[in-house]
UniProtKB/TrEMBL annotation:
PANTHER family: PREPHENATE DEHYDROGENASE, PREPHENATE DEHYDROGENASE [NADP(+)]. Keywords: Amino-acid biosynthesis, Aromatic amino acid biosynthesis, NAD, Oxidoreductase, Tyrosine biosynthesis. Residues 3-291 form the Prephenate/arogenate dehydrogenase domain. The keyword Oxidoreductase applies. One of its GO terms (molecular function) is prephenate dehydrogenase (NAD+) activity. This is Prephenate dehydrogenase. NCBIfam families: PRK06545.1-5. The keyword Oxidoreductase applies. It catalyses: prephenate + NAD(+) = 3-(4-hydroxyphenyl)pyruvate + CO2 + NADH. It comes from the Bacteria. Residues 296-366 form the ACT domain. Belongs to the prephenate/arogenate dehydrogenase family. It comes from Chungangia koreensis.
Amino acid sequence: MNTNVLIIGLGLIGGSLSLALQRNPDIKIYGYDQDEQSLMMAKKLGVIHEIVNHPKEAANCSDYIVFATPVNITIELMKDLPKWNVSNTTVITDTGSTKKLIMKQAEQLINEGYQFIGGHPMAGSHKSGVAAAKAHLFENAFYVLTPHPATKPACLSKLESLLAPTKGKLVKLTAEEHDQMTAVVSHFPHLIAASLVRQLKEKNKVSPMTKHLAAGGFRDITRIASSNPVMWRDITLQNRDKLIGMLEDWQEEMETVKNLLMHPDPERIEEFFSAAKKFRDDLPVNTSGAVYTEYDLYVDIPDYPGVISEITGYLAKDEISITNLRIIETRTDVFGVLVISFQTPKDRERGEACIKTYTTFDTYIS
Ligand SMILES: NC(=O)C1=CN([C@@H]2O[C@H](COP(=O)(O)OP(=O)(O)OC[C@H]3O[C@@H](n4cnc5c(N)ncnc54)[C@H](O)[C@@H]3O)[C@@H](O)[C@H]2O)C=CC1
Ligand SMILES: O=C(O)C(=O)Cc1ccc(O)cc1
């Protein structure tokens, strides 16, 4: 018998979850989105099995309901859920980036006999929409669950077995712990990235060449400033308290930096950078963390016309998929570095072997 899942919100996360859950052939996915285009595209791309025009249409036959909508919309929909004729055995969850207010709303549902367990797959990207959905998005990433103290172990196990095909690492946290930690590693960095870009915008008014000098470092640190502003508005509003606390700590940190500059001491300045480098270099690398990871392979290439299509041709011949290509440096007569990104370490290994078979180019992994 099929297990029915209703996914509400068919964007990057709802779409990716839907694709991952379909690795279990017994799963049937009903999809709802208020945006008709997303709904049609989800069906056309095979992201969902069946369209519903209102959650009510599938809510009463669903074993699971997943809210993958922006966090404030999720709260509004949770208020509406009691009108949908949902069974008290249906497991309800969400994918929101914040948990405290969602779990507060869940309390009402739980008191009325519904089963709700908060969820947050800690993987994503600055992209949104169903077209960016990928079945492997959550692989090796932490997938946080926030059960309520009253959640029955059987209900939690039921949700864990649904999510197993995501290949995410399921961990349980309280909503409070979740919102504190995600403020540090995700929400606050988005504020800083946006502020850095806003600062560049202002400085650029005075010296219009500035933005053209924005090199890799600036782009790396501000990539997330290209995320969906509406989604981040809502996350910021829901995790305001923790973010204000972070901002106060940050202001202290900036005071420390200012002091370093006001009373320059080369040793202390070096120590400032080296302490950060050491901790950054020691961050765990075996998880994809909060970002969609690509596995980069560096190839030293000579600068002659057609060299890139030659390499991609070899990879295509051996049926090895790549996700991205970029050149770090090319000058006439000097070797440039081609960076090829793969979806998995295995693909990268095969890619490296393929390039070594067909060329004499040096390859390495950073
Ligand atoms: N983007 C990311 O990297 C991550 C996002 N999240 C969380 O997952 C949730 C979804 O985020 P994304 O998929 O990135 O956003 P998205 O913008 O790609 O998708 C959201 C979808 O919800 C739909 N929607 C909006 N209002 C609706 C309503 N009233 N009824 C039905 N559908 C509605 C939109 O039309 C859209 O298709 C958010 O709560 C976000 O905080 C969690 C992990 C990562
Ligand atoms: O693109 C990135 O680096 C992200 O930060 C993705 C992301 C966005 C929201 C989340 O709740 C989790 C991960």
